[in-house]
Amino acid sequence: MFNKTPTSGPATAAMPPAQQALGGQGIGAALARHRRLWLALLAWTITFVIFFPILWMILTGFKTEAQAIATPSLLFTPTLESYEAVHARADYLKFAWNSVYVSVGSTLLALLIGIPAAYSMAFLPTKRTKGTLLWMLSTKMLPPVGVLVPIYLIFRDLGMLDTRTGLTVVYTLMNLPIVIWMLYTFFKDLPRDILEAGRMDGASTLQEVGYLLIPLTLPGIASTGLLSVILSWNEAFWSLNLTSSQAAPLTAYIASFSSPEGLFWAKLSAASTMAVAPILIFGWLTQKQMVRGLTFGAVK
Amino acid sequence: MATLQLKQVTKSFGDTDVIKGIDLEVNDREFVVFVGPSGCGKSTLLRIIAGLESATSGDLVIDGQRINEVGPADRGLAMVFQSYALYPHMTVEDNMGFSLRLAGVGKEARREKVREAARILQLEPLLDRKPKALSGGQRQRVAIGRAIVRNPSIFLFDEPLSNLDAALRVQMRIELARLHEELDATMIYVTHDQIEAMTMADKIVVLQGGVVEQVGSPMELYHHPRNRFVAGFIGSPKMNFLPVSLSGANDQGVEVTLPGGRRCRVPVEGAGLASDSSLELGVRPEHLVLDDDGPLEGEIQVIERLGGQTSLYLKMGDELITLMADGDVAHRVHDRVRFGFETHRAHLFDGQGLALPSLDRHPLAGLRRQDNRAATDADGA
Fold first, then answer.
1. Which CATH number fits domain B230-349: 3.20.20.80, 2.40.50.140, 3.40.50.720, 2.40.160.50?
2. Which SUPFAM superfamilies does the UniProt entry name for this protein (chain B) (predicted)?
């Protein structure tokens, strides 16, 4: 008897709660569904536009040179011709090893320098910390070509041209500002109290970093490292200018297929596919980590 | 055994002076509470003692040794943070044993000490959990356990209960008092909550604007506040203040004219008061009584019935006066009531806000928490 109130008649009671909230009309819900559909369509379109060149590159790699320059067509008989030709001309593994060496090496070096730097900026800031951070970022605004000649000359005099060490150093310097910036923001999110509690417990600065800071900001450090690896892997300007044969990474490998005799699209595509495949797979495997790290502070 | 002395300690951040020359003595096994409004410097002072901040000038002395240059871990102190500051990636056991691990204590010895602390705090079933799987009160106990394991000469607490809900706060307050007794250690406790200060302290240090306003036992601060600030800060609800004019002074006390024209004599020292001094009368809400012949009159604005007691908020001119009346008081809002007070319960403050000293001391003003305990022990015997 108690629930027989005028508002809970049989018509409204049968409706789902969302429609009840809309006064039983359901127009708002339909509009919202419509909007979601359009947004999804838009997102898929943008994704396709971005992905298309990569798709086309992969497809072209499985064509003959003649097919590659013919009127584009999605219907063709795949062939490994270009891959065989590319393989015959250059030692892919050597280039790949160089890429792995310099990108991982420079990342480790950048983290080794970046973690203490970001630690001091995040936890022992001075009046100049903000300025230093901005200055570091400003170095990324300078076009690299602006310092090509001096760096080239220095590297020549130090005998570091076409060495993996040389390229590692350049990549470290190149990524250090970003690495420090990212680490700085991750470290800043860590409550100071925790490190202070560690200090009260008798931790030295090194123990504080090793036992507390690094384990607690590992997602952030990992995503910083991943980004640094990817940036180094894809870097072409310095690798093309500072290496020739011994230390040349995969970017140089791709470039070697665009020669003065003409462009060989199929071979170039096959080489490019092989060059980006490892980092693409790497990125795909670590994407969860990347997203988690990059949104670490935002969703806390 | 641990005593602490602060001698003219100051702290400045840039041009801002946060601590302006503090002298303080903390005796062995004393429970000292720093209390004051936010921004008064109480937390900074605690951090200076802990070694997390350095004093700009002045000396810190523990057991006769100057420790200004000694690192935080080597001062023999342990601190419990407001946020608990547990290590989120370690289990409760590892959290509590971290300092021992850093000190190179072996696994077995470490385990034993942690178990001992866990027993005191009833944390044994939680030792394998991570902090995020604990409730607020449990985290708080782990933070205290982490301090106990270090076996410090002085415990420092930085507003440890302010993140807990009201019921848990009362429970932890009692637990901390019990812990103080069981560990027999010196404790320094920072809070903005005067009830925590009153209930737990042997000695309260009231701070404001980086200076010590008064140091004393809870009952001394309550009955003999040194100035208007301490009088208003200690005690809940807040003390009422009324502007009064001086009518005369002799060795029996100071006679003042109340708003409404009646006179009364307050037993305080009035020698040296200028005849046109502007004075303020301070009476605590619990010392005001409804009295049809009372010297004061006001209109009831708000009534808050707490059951056992009733708070009446009375409008008197521009002032709003709080009066704690009996729980069964029958008045209604907008009733006009007369009220008064016992003159020896009243305080008088001069133009600078300093209290005129009472002619006789309250019998409980010198009471310490230990004295409470001794009395109950005697009763039991």
1. 2.40.50.140
2. MOP-like, P-loop containing nucleoside triphosphate hydrolases
B372 confidence band (pLDDT: 50, 70, 90): low
CB contact under 8 A, B73 and A196: no
Say yes or no to pLDDT of A138 above 80: yes
CATH label, B4-229, candidates 3.40.630.30, 3.10.20.740, 3.40.50.300, 3.20.20.140: 3.40.50.300
Q: What is the pTM of this model?
A: 0.80
Give the total residue count for chain B. 381
pLDDT of residue A170: 94
Min Cα separation B234/chain A (Å): 30
Query: Does A22 touch chain B if contact means CB atoms closer than 8 Å?
Result: no
A197 vs B71, B77, B85: nearest CB: B85
User: Tell me, what's the ipTM?
Assistant: 0.83
At B198-248, the pLDDT tens digits run 999 999 999 999 999 999 999 999 999 999 999 999 998 999 999 999 988
Residues of chain B with CATH 2.40.50.140: 230-349
Confidence of residue B373 (pLDDT cuts 50, 70, 90): low
Amino acid present at A167: L
The shortest C-alpha distance from A206 to chain B (Å) reads 12
A207: nearest CA partner in chain B:
B102
- What does the pLDDT read at residue B377? 45
What is the distance between the alpha carbons of residues B175 and B165, in angstroms, rounded to a whole number? 15
Q: Which residues in chain B are contacts of A194 at CB distance < 8 A?
A: 85-88
- Closest chain A residue by Cα to residue B77: A200
β-bridge partners, B320: B315
